[in-house]
Amino acid sequence: MEDVTVAILAGGQGRRLGGVDKGLIPVLGRSLVERVLQALPAGTARLIVANRNLRAYQALGVPVASDPWPDFRGPLAGILAALRTASTRWVLILPCDAVALPDDLLPRLMIQAKQHGLQAVYAEAHGQGQYLCCLLNRDLESGLAEVLERGERAPRRWFATIGARPVDFSDVQPEPLWSLNNPAEVADACARLSRGD
User: Which family does it belong to (predicted)?
Assistant: First the structure.
């Protein structure tokens, strides 16, 4: 895993959560982004992509990058920032609210990418693509910059154009918490984490 950087996307506007900085939402005494960081294997190169509260993220002792544009162009812009900043060949993208992921997420994604000669793979569970839990080759950087300049904002559509493939995680139990998009989901995650599920 020496050739992989884990980049945590924390640069969104948090619209569905009232505009709060999602990565800094506290869950049982730790922010969401801290929980994701602490779940990573020791020694893994890591990076946070954030556009607000940069000092708070920098205080976590992890390099922080920002989107190339100041107008919040969505997660693809955060992915571009990660690809531009990482020095490794591969970048594992994770959202800051993915607080319970499969233990073997990275190995399974990497195996599929290398076995099939792919530059991009992403997690899928029960037919639902988890496009922001993906493994990308840094060679995708220039092409992604071009599609963003043309106005593309949807990871799903970009993945379709580059031949990305899903990797099925429907077998994982307990079911991963891929993202938290509203106050009810945050509350449910708190309850589950407090139970140790």
Answer: Belongs to the MobA family.
Binding residue ranges for GTP = 9-11, 22, 67, 97
| Residues in the annotated binding site | 9-11, 22, 67, 97
Quick one: pLDDT at residue 70? 78
Q: Are strands 120-125 and 165-168 parallel, antiparallel or unpaired?
A: parallel
Give how far Cα 176 sits from Cα of 41, 81, 122, 170, Å.
Answer: 17, 26, 14, 9
Q: What is the pTM of this model?
A: 0.93
CATH of 4-195, one of 3.90.550.10, 3.40.250.10, 3.40.50.300, 3.30.1330.30: 3.90.550.10
pLDDT at residue 69, rounded to an integer: 83
Cα dist from 25 to 8, 28, 181, whole Å: 15, 10, 12
Query: How far is Cα 57 from Cα 106, in angstroms, rounded to an integer?
Result: 23
Q: Are strands 4-10 and 90-95 parallel, antiparallel or unpaired?
A: parallel
Residue 38 in tokens: 């602490």
Q: What is the mean pLDDT of each run of 10 residues along the chain (197 residues)?
A: 90 67 90 93 92 95 92 90 97 95 95 97 97 98 95 95 97 91 86 78
189 Rama class: left (phi>0) / alpha (psi -120 to 50) / beta: alpha
Binding-site residues for Mg(2+) sit at 97
